[in-house]
Amino acid sequence: MSPARRFPSPSPTTGLSRRRLLASLAALPVAGVTAGCGSGDVSADGTVTLDFQWWGSEDRNLATEKAVRLFERRHPKIRVATSYAGYDAYLQRLATQVAAGGGPDVMQMDVAYLRTYADRDVLADLAEPVFSTISRSRIPRLYQQTGVVDGTLVGIPTGVATTALFIDPALWRKAGVGIPKAGWTWDDLLTDIGPKLKRAVPGRAPLTDFGGYVECFHVWLVQHGKSLYAGDGSTGFTEADLLGFWQLMGRLRDKGVFTPPPVTASSLSGGAGDRALVRKLSTAEFQITSSGTSYWETYGEVTPIPFPTVSASAPPGMAAAASSSLCVRRTSPHRREAALLIDFLVNDPEAAEVLGVVRGLPPNQRNLDRLAPKLSGGDRVIERYVADVRGDLAPPLPPAPSGADEDKNEFRRVYQDIIFGASEVRAAAAEMWDKFHTSVPQG
User: Fold this and answer.
1) What is the pLDDT of residues 26-39, one digit of tens each?
2) In Å, how far from its chain's centre is CA 171?
3) Is residue 4 in some structural domain?
4) Does residue 59 have a pLDDT over 50?
5) 3-state secondary structure of 186
6) Residues 6+ apart with CB under 8 A from 63
7) Signal peptide span per the entry (predicted)?
8) Average predicted confidence (pLDDT) for the chain
């Protein structure tokens, strides 16, 4: 059994609306927090108390508590007050604390919210000398970039990830298509692999329709040399790009490669148990690798493979990603101690053994190399996949601007209008383009 099982990231339909979060932060001036609230206590004997908060499941919470206790034994003058909650409750509490001028010294941050907090000057610059004890030498540079906002390092990755198509290898072999290698194309899927799967596996669509996931649109954009967002948070594509992507999705639907609309809608709006692959209504579907292990529990053996691409020589489109980040409150009175805690959680070999993959694959490459032989099942398969595609990964998507959650939700809604015939694809692309520019201030 793999060490310390990983807790899946929030599903694409889960999470606190950025609009609600921003409402909670409304009292916070853009210039930043002026109050220094938080635990930040120093006892008479010089012991410092750090407040560390995160979200997670029981597995993650137990492993993190164990790692924190190990840290305290290493640093007897530092006490860590821990607090955790479910994802939505955690984000709401954090927003409320920060809006009131407080917050934890060290916090786990969803990368989707890095810019939201960084733009309000809540997060410390981790490149400042006081944080020099946080070693990044064994974190691949590609993943270090996941915590950079407008040139400032505000987060350290807790785990590394990317995107994949998770396929049922037995069914794909039964269809005679085997396991596609990097460089397989959209044309291969349309004219060869998709039709063969459709004939060989009646009752299942070859793939769960992923045209409603903005993450998959980003993969397609990278294949064409573009990006969902630019470095400044503005949109990195055109209306014509969006139209082209959705037209390709339409051809896949017309060929019967994708799931029918009712199944697609259920997958888009439901939880993990509503996914078409889990319900045995498709043979493959899109997922983030940090959440992929759940298939071994809810479905059975699956294999992650790269996305099809434009041509054999084109980039595959998958980007480096962090499962989450560790950040420090800018006004924390104990930034030196916060740096020690983050460095320990990310880089210490004993901490890596304790934490396992509860936050995804360890970002420290040496720790991952030591842990990998002990992984089993889905954890081991995903580790090998990420290692195999690492050399082809695109740089991380720039931190999402405020409004990006609304983009995700609207992207799904507008796409469902397309597949149910409520909107023509050109009109839908124009509508979604306008929404991108409404929800993204710089767009």
Assistant:
1) 555 544 444 444 44
2) 28
3) no
4) yes
5) helix
6) 4, 354, 355, 356, 358
7) 1-35
8) 91
